[in-house]
Amino acid sequence: MKHNLLGMSLEELEAFFISIKEKSFRSKQVFQWIHQKGESDFHKMTNLSKDLQSKLSELCMIEAPEILYEKDSVDGTRKWVLSVGDGDLVEMVLIPEGKRATLCVSSQVGCAVDCSFCATGKQGFSRNLSTSEIIGQLWVAENSFGYPREHSDKKVTNIVMMGMGEPLLNFEAVTSAMKLMMHDKAYGLSKRKVTLSTSGLVPLIDKLSEVTDAALTISLHAPNDRLRDELVPINKKYPIDELLESVKRYVSKCGDKRKTTIEYILINQVNDSLENAEELSNLLRTLPCKINLIPFNPFPGSSYKRPSSMRVQTFKKKLQKEGYITTIRTTRGEDIMAACGQLVGKVNDRTRRKERSKKDPARIQTKSL
Ligand code: SAH
Ligand code: SF4
C-alpha cells in the first residue's frame, strides 16, 4: 500500500523523507507542490531529480476523495458529492459571495449526534474522515478553479467545518486538517477564516483551545435546556450553562477581543417566538458573541417548517434591540439540496443499521474524552 502524502503535516513529511533516506528539505518542496500548486503527479515536480520523482511515485501517492458528481445551483453555489470508499459518500459545498468563496467541509460520514432538525443526523453515522479526506476536500475545490493553480485568480478564502458530521467527534483528523488549512506553506488561511462549528461537546471545546485559536461557532438553537434537549440531544450530557462557560474559556484564551458566533436555527412554532428571543438575549448577556439566525431548511421526511419571513424579522429585531449583532443566514443552493442541514451524501447501509440501534446520545463515542 502506497503512503498517501496528502494529509501529512510538514513535520510528518520531513520524518517520512528521512525514513526513506532523502534530505528533509525536499519535504518542503513536495509539501508546496501538493498544497500550493495542487500537483498529484511526482513526475511533474520539476525541482526534484528524476530519480527522486520515480522513487516517490513507487512509494507514495497524493490521493483526494473521488468526485462522483458536481452540481451548480442557479445562485452560483456548487455542491460536490465525493466517494470515500465502501459506498460511503460525503458532500461539500462552495459558496461564492463577491470576492469571498466559502467552502463548507465535511468531517464525518453521517453524524451520531442526531439533532432532530438535521438531515445528516437522520441518516446515522458511518465513520470518521481521515485528515487526507478532510484536507482533500479543499484540495479538490481549489483544483476545480483551474490547473495549474497559479493560472487562476480564484481561491477558497474561508472554510467552515459545517458540512456533514460533528467535527469535535473527529478531533485529531479535524484539527490536523485545520493546521494544514492555516499553514503558510500550504493554504495560508488566517485563524479568523477557518471556522469550526460544534453542537457543543464541552470537554472537547476545552481541548480545542489547547491546539488552536481558530474561529468557533456554537450551534445553540434553543434558549433553555428543556427545548435544547429536544433539538440537540447532546445537551442532555452537556447542558447550556456548562456549554457557555466552556465557550467563554475558549474566547478568553484567544485573547484578541474575539467573539464567538451563536447559530440559532429558526423552526416555526418550535423555538421562534418573541419569548424565545427574549430568553436567548438574557442567556447570552455575558458572552462576547454575535448571533446568526438560520431559517430552517426543509428536507424530505421532516415535519418541521420554516417560519414566515415576518416571524424571522421579528425575532431578529428583538435581538438587535437588545444590542446583539444579529444576521440572518441567506439560504444558498437550496435547489441542489446544498443548504445547511440538507447534506446527506450516503452512509453505508450496514453501518447505518448498526449505529441507529444505539441512538442514545450518551453513548456517542467520545474516545478522546
Ligand atoms: N455538527 C456541527 C457542524 C455541522 S452542522 C454543528 O452542528 O454545528 C452545520 C450547521 O447547519 C449547524 O449550525 C446546524 O445546526 C445547521 N443545520 C442543520 N440542519 C439544518 C436545517 N435543516 N436547516 C438549517 N440549518 C441546519
Ligand atoms: Fe450532527 Fe451538526 Fe447535524 Fe447535529 S446539526 S446532527 S451535530 S451535523
For the CA atoms, what is the radius of gyration?
Answer: 21 Å
Helix content class? 25-40%
CATH homology superfamily name of the largest domain: Aldolase class I
By DSSP, the count of extended strands is 14
Number of domains: 2
| Strand portion | 15-25%
Structural class: alpha/beta
In the CATH hierarchy, the third-tier topology of the largest domain is known as TIM Barrel
The description of the largest β-sheet is: 10 strands, mixed
Uncertain regions: pLDDT < 50 for 5+ in a row?
Answer: 350-369
Strand order of the largest sheet: 3-4-5-6-9-10-11-12-13-14
List the total number of helices: 12
Shape: elongated
Bound compounds, each kind once, are:
S-adenosyl-L-homocysteine, iron/sulfur cluster
CATH class of the largest domain: Alpha Beta
Distance between the termini: 32 Å
Concise structural overview:
This protein has helices at about 10-20, 25-35, 50-60, 120, 130-145, 170-180, 200-210, 225-230, 240-255, 275-285, 310-320, 350-355, and strands at about 5, 60, 65-70, 80-85, 90-95, 100-105, 110, 125-130, 160, 195-200, 215-220, 260-265, 290-295, 325-330.
Provide an overview of this structure:
The protein has 369 residues and is of the alpha/beta class. The chain folds into 2 domains: 59 residues, DNA polymerase, domain 1, CATH 1.10.150; 288 residues, Aldolase class I (TIM Barrel), CATH 3.20.20. The protein has 12 helices and 14 strands. The strands form 3 sheets. A 10-stranded mixed beta sheet has the order 3-4-5-6-9-10-11-12-13-14. Strands 1-2 form a two-stranded parallel sheet. The protein is elongated. Helix 7 links the parallel strand 10 and strand 11. S-adenosyl-L-homocysteine binds next to strand 10 and strand 12.
